[in-house]
Amino acid sequence: MSASIQLDAYLGLLAVNGTLVNVGVGAPAEPLSVNVFSLIGGRRSFAGSTIGGIALTQEMLDFCAEHHIGAEVEVISADRINEAYERVLAPDVRYRFVIDTARLA
C-alpha cells in the first residue's frame, strides 16, 4: 500500500526535459491525477516500470550518493510488524518502515 502523492509537486522539481519514474510494485491503488501543464510547461515526462534491474538500481544508488540524497526511514523491531501494518492502513506513516532483523532469533 502506498501513500497518496501530489504528482504535480514532484514534477515541478524536475529540470526541463526531466522524467519522473515510478519504479516498483508499490504504486498507489487509486488512479493518479496530474495537471497536464506540469508536463508540457517544462517538457517533463512521467513514466513507470515494475522493476529497474540491478544495473539501474546501482546507477540510482550512485546518483543518490553523489548528490547526498538519502531515505528517511523509521526502524522498527520485528515484534512491532502488526503495529506498523495498522499504521499503514490508518494512514499514519511518514517514513518507510525498515524492520530491524538483527535481533531476530
Describe this entry's structure for a reader.
The protein is α/β, with parallel strands linked by helices and 105 residues long. The protein is 31% helix and 19% strand. It has helices at 7-11, 36-40, 53-66, 81-89; strands spanning 19-23, 45-49, 73-77, 96-100. The strands form 2 sheets. It has a two-stranded parallel ribbon with strand order 1-2. It has a two-stranded parallel sheet with strand order 3-4. Helix 4 links the parallel strand 3 and strand 4 (96-100). It is globular, with a radius of gyration of 17 Å. The two termini are 28 Å apart. The mean pLDDT is 85.
What would the keywords be for this entry?
105 residues, alpha/beta, two-stranded parallel sheet, 4 helices, 4 strands, 19% strand
Helices and strands, with pairings:
Layout: H1 7-11, E1 19-23, H2 36-40, E2 45-49, H3 53-66, E3 73-77, H4 81-89, E4 96-100
Parallel strand pairs: 1-2, 3-4
Fraction of residues in helix: 25-40%
Strand order of the largest sheet: 1-2
* Total beta strand runs: 4
How many helices in DSSP terms?
4
Share of β-strand residues: 15-25%
Poorly predicted regions are none
Mean pLDDT across all amino acids: 85
Could you give the order of the helices and strands?
Answer: HEHEHEHE
N- to C-terminal separation? 28 Å
Quick one: biggest sheet? 2 strands, parallel
Radius of gyration: 17 Å
- Overall 3D shape: globular
Structural category is alpha/beta
